[in-house]
Amino acid sequence: MTAKAGQLRGSLPFMKTVEEAIGLCKKERDNFYLDAFMFEAWLGRLALDVAAEYAESKSANERHLQAGEARRGFQHLFGGASDQEFPVVFNHLLRFAEYDDCQSEQIRRAFWALSIEEPPSEPRPFKPPLLRLQRQEIISRMRHSVERLCDWLDALLHFQAHFQRHVLPESFDPDPEKRELAALGTNQRFYGKLSAFSKAWWQWHHGEAAQRFKDSPKWPTIGKIMSTPLRKDALPATVDNVVITIWPLVKRHNWTYRDLMAVVQRILPARHDYPLEREQDLTAYCNNVLGLRKPPGPAGKSSPDGKPPGYQVALRLCGHDAKANSS
User: Fold this and answer.
1) 237-267 pLDDT, tens per residue?
2) Rounded to an integer, what distance in angstroms lies between the CA atom of residue 192 and that of residue 120?
3) Alpha carbons 86 and 80: distance in angstroms, whole number
4) DSSP string for residues in 205-243
5) Whole-model pTM?
6) I need a surface site. Which of 75, 76, 197, 257 has the fewest CB within 10 A?
């Protein structure tokens, strides 16, 4: 579906404004770059919103994570795409995932999760010209894939923010301007590992911020973040990582917390302590520690054998052989 490791396209051209993106489209005679600019804006906004949930809500039970943010953002930008236009958007998203930068990697990882949940099937032998119903079926599949991709993207961004909140909590200041400067400081401390695109973004953003904050007492935030030691002794609990990663399955299949507990215990067989002792404990933990809560609707029914729909997907996502764990 996307380029394999070692076959990436390199870095995207750095586009600061929509006008630059349009100009590049005209120069290259390729409308991809405008969509790529919009994908970057969408992913950047999502990352900022997840960081704000952690920084501005003192208590985790006030946070709303994995609640459809990516779907809403994508719908805002591309919801008006007609059935004629959407295949172009979809193929541009696939192409965007083939570039060598952190945002493209996020899309690749979300596609990877989607491919485990919904392995590509042998395409039906449609022959051109496509009938109207056949074309609608193909487009419907594309739209469904993007919607589900968004759910996995929400989980990925949640995972990344949760991890960073533990190891570098200073980067989650309630002040959004200090968070912006903290992001520059974080990128600067890892500058040597950045892609060419990310380096270009940092250089432009750092220069622009230097002008904006030249007389501000907030400017030293960059230096503080660069010199603050990472708190490697404060890594999030393994159960956090598992629950955050597989939460899209909880939502899709309406798992009960008992279902979730059974699946997590399959993935972490040695973990039977808090919060995996009782269903009530895990319910409270998801809400009060992870900021996760099930969407409203009819309550699900627990699977009697601890194997709710989608449990094999959860095992594969967490690096387990589903067949070996099927008993």
Assistant:
1) 899 999 999 999 999 999 999 999 999 999 9
2) 37
3) 9
4) HHHHHHHHTTT-TTTTHHHHHHHSPP-GGGPPPHHHHHH
5) 0.90
6) 76
